[in-house]
Amino acid sequence: MRYQATLYLAVVIAVLLMTWIVAMNLFDVQQKTSNVLAFSGIDKIKLGFQNAINQYEPQCSISTVCPPNHSSIQLRSGAANIIGPKICFDGKTIMSHVMNNVGRGLNIVVLNGETGAVEKFGYLNMRGGNANEILAYLKEIKTGSIVLVASYDDVAEKLTDEMREIFVEMGSSLITSVRTRDSWVFAGRAGTEHKSLFEKQAVNDAKTNVYEGWPDMVEVSGCFPRTDVED
């Protein structure tokens, strides 16, 4: 009798032990499956997020995606004689107050008209600079080059009629009216006869100036064509 009781107890313990082992194995499999599913879910979220980034990347702070053969641009003039301008092309800021590579006068970037590669950039001192050297610099810009310009401080003091005509030949329609302390931004192409759509001016007027003795800054942005637009 005692032997049967002992045998019965051993069987019960064995059954309980096997049940526990099976249960732990099932739990482990479920846990691994859950981890795999969770990991897959994270991967899908990451993949979707990455695809969204690849499909839409704001460039030069503009809200639209530029079509083929166009580059994003953002040109902002300086604010009075305190904050420098900003010139951004194809998603890259080339000149800005933060980068500490701007100066008072005409801040100008010259790019290859076909590739959009930066060929040179800097600022023309329109107060203390040499007018002949400024004119020579502008004349050296090759036909077809993309030219981005943003004013800072005053640009009119050394701005001669011959210099203005060079910008007219780049597509400017406002440069002939730019006067002392006016804010001005412009994007054009050397040697073109087409009026640029990327140009803005704020006139120095005591009645409308937003800074003491200075007009508001001006800004243009959008998609600039890499190739010249024919009529």
Shape: elongated
Strand share of the residues?
Answer: 15-25%
Q: Oligomerization state of this entry?
A: single chain
Mean pLDDT: 83
Give the helices and strands as they follow along the chain: HEEEEEHEHEEE
Sheet with the most strands: spatial strand order: 5-4-6-7-8
How far is the N terminus from the C terminus?
A: 112 Å
Helices and strands: which structural class?
Answer: alpha+beta
Q: What is the helical fraction, as a range of percent? A: 25-40%
Low-confidence stretches: 32-56
Number of strands: 9
Radius of gyration over alpha carbons?
33 Å
Number of separate helices? 3
Q: Let me know the largest β-sheet.
A: 5 strands, antiparallel
Question: What can you tell me about this protein's structure?
Answer:
By secondary structure, this protein is α+β, with helices and mostly antiparallel strands. The protein is built from three helices and nine strands. The strands form two sheets. A five-stranded antiparallel sheet has the order 5-4-6-7-8, with no helix packed on it. Strand 4 and strand 5 form a beta hairpin. The radius of gyration is 33 Å and the shape is elongated. It starts with a helix and ends in a 6-residue tail after the last strand. About 11% of the residues have low confidence.
